[in-house]
User: Fold these one by one.
Assistant:
Number 1:
Amino acid sequence: MNRRRRAADIAIYTLLILGAVTMLVPFVWMAVTSIKQPDEVFAAGGGIKWLPNHFLWHDEVIQGRKVRAWWGNYPDAWNEINILRLYLNSIFIAVVGTFGQVLTSAMAAYAFARLRFPGRDKLFFAYLATMMIPGSVTMIPVFVIMKHFHWINSYASLIVPGLFSAYGTFMLRQFFMGLPTELEDAAKIDGSGHLGIWVRVILPLSKPALATLTTFTFMGFWGSYMWPLIVTITDPMRTLPIGLRYFVGQHATNYTQLMAGSMIALIPVLLLFIFNQRYFVEGIKLSGMGGK
Amino acid sequence: MGKQTKKRISSNKSEALAAYCFLAPNFLGFLVFTSIPVIVSLVMSFTHWNIFRSPVWVGADNFRSLLWFHHEHGRLAANDPMFWKYLGNTLYLMIGIPIGMVGSLCLALMMNRKLKGIVIYRTVYFLPTVCSGVAMLILWKYLYNADIGLINKTLRAAGDMLYANPVSGWVFAPLRGFLTTPPDWLGTTAWAKPALILMGLWGGLGGVNTILYLAALQNVPSSYYEAADIDGAGPWAKFWSITWPMISPTTFFILIMSVIGGFQTGFMTANVLTNGGPAGSTTTIEYFLYQNAFEKFNMGYASAVAWFLFAVILLITLLTWKLGGKVVTYE
């Protein structure tokens, strides 16, 4: 029995490691390509060359040919697409949008979970029903609304339509419903109003749910693609994904620079993920509660 | 007594007032960016409208062009054959859903043991999900490049190795064409869709679904397995009689969500990687909708496509709701 278990463990480890290598190889290939010389990528011959031909800290002339430093593609990519501006746009939109969405969701969720008012259940049902509507149904009319507001190609069009979420309201409402009422009763006796209860009791108790909603909403804003593509026109208003997309359009085959640009785009996301992994995992589990 | 009731009513009133204040921002957004647009979209789907001129009411014309058929040379032909082709593409790409689910479940089963360094594995498998987006599509464009892509380089290297030896060359003879001249993945109609499915599997295998499955597996009470051990059940029997039924709600949830999502994807991939080609072979309904709305400015027709999607999603949801109770085992 014990030996069979060990054999199974070894088999599983092998499979897991093989799978992990498959997951990592494309990333490694991207990283090594980003530090190669531009012409190296197109070298004839079928063999796979992992390491770059040269690894220099400064540009040098070797045998009459100019060889760039290993990091040379990075400033090129950086300058080419004004990546700093794209980053600032993406961060600004994601931070403001996420804060706004979590705020409006937490407020509405409190009303749905704890306050009695006429029409509450009907309105909540309407919220639930709209969660099924595909984004493409509302996208065109919202675009027309943006046009009427003269918001096209502005931060407003990138942020405001995303400030309200039936899903966020629903998720937080479910969480608030599960909170014990004793602390609220105590706060009521102390003379707290609804605003006081919301700020001092409900929100502090809901930190895990708020953190997961924040993570998810942020990811949503950060990765959003079709909407920013539709409502932005000029380069300074583009977000990171849209800027990268135009970068590909202009440098169809300049793979060393494309890989460097992609690396610049990915590294902060990777760091954010590695340090906040818990919230990602918890958020996914929470979103999967629908299956229970 | 009367005073008490009065106070009660006024407190009810103030509670309702507070509720409306809390709801106001969200409700306003709900109205302007969801409720009203849904109604507008429905009305738009019965018009011809290019946003530059005022819309023209055309009744069910858009739906007739989109979904209906006409006689041509005595044969039945679709009014918009492209729509059906793109619907076919969308469904074809969904082949990846069951494959990915099996893969995610296997991965979760493997990770659900007390193994060393499990957090590292989970992180590595989750990486493609975190990095999903344009940067990953750029990377895959490069990986799939027919001449200098890593995938074809690997295949050619494998071919060189296998066919240098007569024995292995004979064994792998049927693969000779594939390995010595590997396909232009994104450039040929035959390979573009399988290539996208493969890319999707790499990107999604260890992601959200694996974490959902892991959570479900950890919720199965260990006493069930202990009882099965006493009965002398093997791992296979334990899986089919305990694990599979216990995680069926999760399987069901993932399946519905993936299918609903599957009808609404493909835009970014088409826009960055393939332009919907070659010859429209990677154009999905979502990309078709975008092209109609924002390239041809057929807003009415695009709205009709959106409502078709909505109807399909509604149908699936209702159907699975009805069917699910029979298939899924709830605790």
Note: Chain B touches chain A through 94 residues (CB under 8 Å).
Number 2:
Amino acid sequence: MEFLEDFTEEADELLQNINQQLLGLSEAATSSARQPIFQELLRAYHTLKGLAGMMAVEPAVEICHRSETLLNAARKGQLESDGRLVDLLLEGSRLLARLVHALPERTALTEVSTHLKRLQGWTQPTPEPPVATSGGSLLEIPELVGRHLQSEDWHRLEQGIRDGMTVGLAYFSPSPEQAAQGVNVNLAREVLLATGDLIRAVPLIEGSSVRFAFVMLHKTPDPPESLAGLEWLRLNEQPATPAQDPGEEPESWADHQRSSPISNTVRVEVGRLDDIMRLVGDLVVSRWRLQNALEESGVNERQGAPIRDSAMRIERQLRDLRQAVTRARMVPLSEVFGRMPLAVRDLARSSNCQVRLVMEGEDTQVDKVLVERLLDPLLHLVRNALAHGLESPQEREQAGKEPVGRLRLAAVPQGDSIRIEVEDDGRGLDLEAIGRSAGGRVPADAEQALEILCRPGFSTRLQAAKDAGRGVGMDVVRKAVAEMGGHLGLESHPGQGCKFWMRLPLTLTIVDSFLISLAGERYAVARDAVTEVMEVLADQIHHHPGGELLNWRGGALPLLRLRKLLGTSGPVAEPASPHALVYASGEHRVALVVDRVVGLREVVVRPMADPLLSRPWLGGATELGDGSMALILDLGQLVRHGVKT
Amino acid sequence: MSEKSAYVVCRIAETSYAIDAADVQQLEMVDTVTRVPGSEEALDGVVYLRGQVVPVLSLRRRLGLERIAYDYSSRLVIVKVEQRVVALAVDSASEFSLFGPGAWQPPPEALKGLSYLSGVITLQDRMILVLDVRRLLESDSQHRGDE
């Protein structure tokens, strides 16, 4: 079944590319701008067709094939490549996606035949273009095989086509039963050689079995003698006519090959990378254990030096190893941003607004798992922006704005974390309406408004909430962001727009953290959440009825005591001048008093999944190398809600 | 005679309890239990076992008894039920015991209210209460939800 997963994944990537190219096509103004897009589209459809063929998804093969035919005609100017064509093909792409995902059940889709008829009907005004041009027939060679062909192979094939020969592709699947009867790959080769020239034989490894592909040039289009396990395909039926005007069709397959470089990548399941990361995590802990043992062993300075050096070197190497594994898990954000143009296009249509999508920073690399989990909350925010944030063109003109709204998606790297912003230039939040619909006071600022928006079921209860500008299912968004170890924030300017942002860690498994001690226990806090560490002197603290304030840089900072928040009172008394961590969320700053900040180190986050342990302020736990554990605190949750759930 | 069933027998406050051996992964000495602040009464904390953070549930508290400090005879009975791994802290625990089907009886009328009791094993000289681990953990999470 692993093969099936690979297929789905690869098909998804191709479809995403197809969608992007189609959108690009609808925007390309000139014929020359469209040419490279056509080429990319043809290749993508073709590869997808090959894949679908391998998985025997006939309807998908058919859709791809007819889409290719249409695109070929459009490329040659025999067909108008207008928005209608793009819409038709996008519809096909959606069908293809459904077919791909329905593969395990092989669900029959009734829409397919309607769609195929539409594709077919589209071509009728202009005659079907001849498929067997030189470019066309060589495109028939599946990518899987084509990538093994050398440039001289392509030249021989091209020459052969010019000389009126037939390009053939044969597959031979060896099996033990056939081998027992003397039917093996050598025999297949002989049979094929009797009918033409063998350009190249390519072994294809598919799961645990192997299949051979033979690329042939035949003098006659007759099939070779049949042989068990041998499957023969003719790629160009009619003798090809040499290209009329070499200038007109510059994209011979030599170009074609240049634009699809031989892939150097290996597909690895994320789970395997997780395994490696776990091992690296174990190593980090083992090294700490070694360090502890060394310190307790009483070895003197001189004797211990070489051991200490080695321990240091291991630490550095571990850091490098961890970074290498982290890098291997990284994918560009465009994997998720790339899906947005299509969503925006659909949503804009249904919500009666016009929108221009601007994306920034989609090349930023983030953890694969993060990218997957990011999709839903991002879609949610985009949907809200279009449905509730942006006004209709008429409304915008009345407000003196451009009729076309602007939606900006941006990824801004910030050290160990990344900030994803979804910003619109719509009407902004109506704080009064939000307050009213929640049946309470008008929120003082965007942060308070966000609190209300994120209450479970807030928006579904009252229509007013929807009119308030935002807030469908924001609780879900915030939960998803919190599960990724991130924070959700909001800025709003009435009449000018609204910006939601998510701050997310770049990786999820190992986090640089402050280790703190509190009443004899140790806890970890992500370094990222802390802007400053300081020592608190008694005379810096001012008591007042609402709580305590800390004199800080000429201003006052609310002071919270972690001992009190957590309700811990161990045998260890709080030191006279304890340490404090400054936690900042937006404009909001708090000083959190702990006993001591013990150190800064990488901790391996172990999830705490059991229902007995599910608390929003607990980000997991980590072992410290001496057998004990430290709980990882989510300061944001603690500051906002305390420990009570 | 039909087959005997295997149980892990543990003791809490002079009473013997039996847990179906099929639910038990292993027995552990109590090492370092890390306290989790703000948790409900019956949770002692967490332990780190073979790459996993496991909650420690005090069986004493769960059964409505006073908590006592761990000592050399304290044990953690590590149970695995429906993907959950939980450590049950008990005063002491012996290895597996086998009981024939004849020894088992449904819980007596007086104990019917205790949903986590699935039966009673009577031997000549003593009585062992059979715990239903699923109910034990289930009602605990329900209890949390009620808060």
Note: The CA atoms of residues 106 and 112 of chain B lie 9 Å apart.
